[in-house]
């Protein structure tokens, strides 16, 4: 057991200097996370297939009251290769192909997958799609054997992340992975956003239900007209 | 849309007079729920394959400081047929066969399934088992077409339920089902246990991940030496 593993579970590293790349940062979820991490002082690079789209999303965020935020845009390979930690927020449809194309740039890095493979049907609502590897996060781990893949940030509301009137988010981020140093680091990153807390949530083979749970949160939001989040009690 | 469906989601029925049968009430989870519902004033019948085992579990609960609790024991068919609401807390291995054998007694009733189909492996910990019907709750619904099957109480700690020093439970019970009157009723039942709140959690086709999430809670408990529960924020 390494020194890191002997540490108490609440003793998390200082991650304040880390830069963050966000693949799929032009979507609401990625853009929202980009905004919150930049507000917390992290240098953020929004990645997209096209540099202009990435730059436009970055310009959106640095306009208005958020002027001066440390956000820039780049093509996905540059966003991945030039950042300490890379968040995957691409649509599920493009998940596997995007990651396969970035294997070299993502090697050795902590890759945080927050993709929820969900389908929607009228009258049925949201439901989990079957994933051959078990979950989006396990697919990422299979495609990126040289990266340290972590699953996190599945349940954060893109709407709240982007809302300029919302100062803090009232939820715990479940962080899953097989590498404790990496889960600790991502838990610490979650804690950089006011109101959020990173809580260890299990190993990657239990990621499916965390992704799928987003379908339940969508139902809850609909029933209660809410932006539901989860808190873990007794932790 | 019926009158019931137009109600606000927080407007739950009075369930104080309902009697509760618990199949598998001799296990820790069922016994713990029996204890808490009896403490809340419900007449509870613990069911088991053998009447003597059911009676022994009931005697356990009514001994000591809980003397006088309205708990009795009976064979499963009597526990099912003689109660207003029936909770299924049997081991996953016997789930399908037990329910098939009680189809007549459970017809027309609200059946609350709280079974978590989990496996355990050394070095891997807990993980969700595949279920042909999608989840234990959907299996119950398939086996019991004449009952109103609801999924709930998956994440309550049997240890805390049985602990005489624990007055309240700090968690929300996610209640899933396709029949709003029945989910409302089970939400109200959850609210009878101090500290618990019943929150609508989606339709039955999204029950799998709620059952499977118990594996993550086991990992969380292990990491933090806790009895973790979930709270839903903004609801």
From TrEMBL, chains A, B:
InterPro entries: NAD(P)-bd_dom_sf, NpdG, P5C_Rdtase_cat_N, STEAP_metalloreductase. The keyword Cytoplasm does not apply. GO terms for molecular function: coenzyme F420 binding; cupric reductase (NADH) activity; ferric-chelate reductase (NADPH) activity; NADP binding; oxidoreductase activity, acting on NAD(P)H. Gene3D superfamilies: NAD(P)-binding Rossmann-like Domain. Residues 20-117 form the Pyrroline-5-carboxylate reductase catalytic N-terminal domain. GO terms for cellular component: plasma membrane. Residues 51-78 are annotated as: Disordered. Pfam families: F420_oxidored (PF03807). The keyword Oxidoreductase applies. Transmembrane segments: none annotated. One of its GO terms (biological process) is NADPH regeneration. Keywords: Oxidoreductase. NCBIfam families: npdG. This is NADPH-dependent F420 reductase. The gene is npdG.
């Amino acid at each position: 057991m390494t020194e890191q593993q002997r540490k108490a579970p609440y003793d998390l590293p200082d991650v304040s200097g880390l830069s963050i790349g966000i693949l799929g940062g032009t979507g609401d979820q990625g853009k929202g996370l980009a905004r919150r991490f930049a507000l917390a002082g992290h240098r953020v690079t929004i990645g997209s297939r096209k540099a202009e789209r990435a730059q436009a999303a970055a310009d959106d965020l640095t306009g208005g009251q958020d002027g001066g935020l440390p956000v820039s845009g780049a093509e996905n390979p540059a966003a991945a290769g030039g950042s300490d930690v890379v968040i995957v927020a691409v649509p599920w449809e493009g998940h596997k192909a995007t990651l396969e194309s970035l294997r070299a740039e993502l090697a050795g890095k902590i890759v945080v997958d927050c993709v929820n493979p969900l389908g929607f049907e009228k009258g049925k609502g949201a439901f989990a799609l079957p994933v051959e590897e078990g979950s989006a996060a396990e697919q990422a781990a299979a495609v990126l054997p040289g990266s340290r893949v972590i699953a996190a940030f599945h349940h954060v509301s893109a709407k709240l992340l982007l809302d300029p009137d919302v100062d803090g988010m009232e939820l715990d981020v479940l962080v899953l992975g097989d590498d404790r140093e990496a889960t600790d680091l991502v838990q610490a990153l979650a804690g950089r956003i006011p109101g959020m807390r990173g809580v260890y949530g299990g190993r990657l083979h239990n990621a499916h239900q965390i992704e799928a749970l987003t379908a339940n949160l969508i139902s809850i939001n609909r029933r209660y007209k809410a932006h539901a989040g989860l808190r873990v009690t007794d932790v």
